[in-house]
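Students often ask why we bother encoding 3D structure as a string. The short answer is that it lets us treat folding as translation between two languages. Here is a chain of 668 residues written in the first language.
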Amino acid sequence: MDFKAQILAGIPSTLPAKRDRNPMLSHAPVRRAILNVEEKKLSIKNALRYFPKSWHPKLAKEFLAELENYGHIYMYRFMPDYAIYARPINEYPCCTPHAAAIMLMIQNNLDPAIAQHPEELITYGGNGSVFQNWAQYLLTMQYLATMTDQQTLNIYSGHPQGLFPSNAAAPRLVVTNGMMIPNYSSPEDLEKFNALGVTQYGQMTAGSYMYIGPQGIVHGTAITLMNAFRKKGFYGKDVAGKIFLTAGLGGMSGAQTKAGNIVGCITVCAEVNPKAAIKRHQQGWVDELIEHLDELVKRVLLAQNEKQTVSLAYIGNVVDIWERFDQENIEVTIGSDQTSLHNPYSGGYYPVDLSFVEANEMMANASGKFKVSVQESLKRQAISINNHAAKGTYFFDYGNAFLLECSRAGADVMAANGIDFRYPSYVEDILGPLCFDYGFGPFRWVCASGRENDLDLTDRMAKEVMEEIKLGAPAEIQQQLQDNINWISAAKENRLVVGSKARILYADAEGRAKIALRFNEAIKTGELSAPVILGRDHHDVSGTDSPFRETSNIYDGSRFTADMAIHNVIGDSFRGATWVSIHNGGGVGWGEVINGGFGLVLDGTEQAAEKLQNMLFYDVNNGIARRSWARNKEARFAIEREMKRTGTLKITLPSLVDDEVLDGLEIG
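And here it is in the second language, the structure alphabet:
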């Protein structure tokens, strides 16, 4: 069968031959064996639901082997034999192009050039899943290929529940991931219920089909680094020869070296998985691979002396680098960490003094011992970071739960008050007050044609819109606009595209709507040859309630609430989103965050123009209103400005309290 026929077939009518895993690809760490005998039977019984009874005896044995060997049933036998990548939209079978756009995005998330562990359907973060198993993928693609614009598909943690009657104004797809009863949302619960095959960790853009490869986080990291160097008094002058030291070259963290090159510094990034480091080097996202610490020291000293801009990937543990650079008195200007510490004991963090292979073996066979090793390693890393900070290093938590897990390990990372961390989150110090509170966040689009010239045209149109807005913009947001004009101007030459023809920039509600309207008109006139898919990272102004990252600069006590993310998803769904998603977990870990996202297909119609204006306006301003209510002065400025521009917007503003009123109270 050809590609379209295979998509339409869904689960094949005859049992396909057994398939082995591809040894050339990176594979997910073996999950802990945590199910008892009865739970293993239940897991297999759950998996067999997708298949005819005549297949059950053979598949039951096979699925038991997967469960015992890998800790999860992936159904490798049902992996399709066609290549998975973001095809042009017209190559997908469909009854509505909006469904074809979703298929394009799903396949982009699972493209081996993008996905961290493609055969386990994991896009990034060690466990950020698009689906739990290959049966779910096959069924979902079949449903999308046959759905009309009078139907909506429900996805329950990867499971396609089915097509329900709806209408053209409703979302075509509603996705939930890991939405647990609160008392059953611990990391241990995730391991158990994922092994049972009833829930999954969708990360942010993995399980919502909106990942565009590392480009998305390249931009956020570049913006963060620019402003981190500004805080140190360097950026805008000369950062060549200044060191940014970090860790992680996986699905998301792989962007760090590229961002460092764009900013113009020396980036030193440790990665314990050789395949991940080699993959980034082959993609041109890192300049040099180094395997020995002595060689790294020599190379860094040379780069410092010659004030080079270069990215260096050290295949090894970052703790060794922090300690060695401390001993050698190598000056680290900016420091952070982007290992997947939301998932510390299942492959998200590898302890020092163990090889990659040894760590994986201990993780699977001696989980208690592995946990102790992780925590001891975190303590060592914190000690060395503290030493560097005392010499002037600006260290920030990159929202990966690094400081949270350090504190749980007993590392010395707490401030003097015993409540706060001694180092800020990058949202607290940078993205919160400088971007999110003003409404600027990671707006993105994908040219569904797959054509380079369409992407070039959207780049040019977006730049023109930003330049037009900047002419009349207030002083408070001039820097944000200029940073993004610079970004989009250099996007093509920085070779950011991996997979789909996608682009990202930080824009506010005004910028997002005006850019999208320009795209929609170009599709209508034929200047753009195919629809454009809009989205954003959940890591945005409004999409996510995350007390240790996105909402870490909310200081009124509400940062542990999740109303904003829920309101965003519900509000977006009836204002025109093509699909919406809401997840437990993402970035900082299961049980630590609720985050929501959307996708919106522009097809050149008047309906699309109306939808994009209503939905994008709400999607941003719901978060600004919440941030303003939390007394964030930048958000107060932004929402008052928006109310002047939009007469139908009426927002409750806080009455500010003078500290003297409280200081005079006798509070026992």
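Translate back mentally: The first helix runs from residue 3 to 9. Keep this in mind for the problem set.
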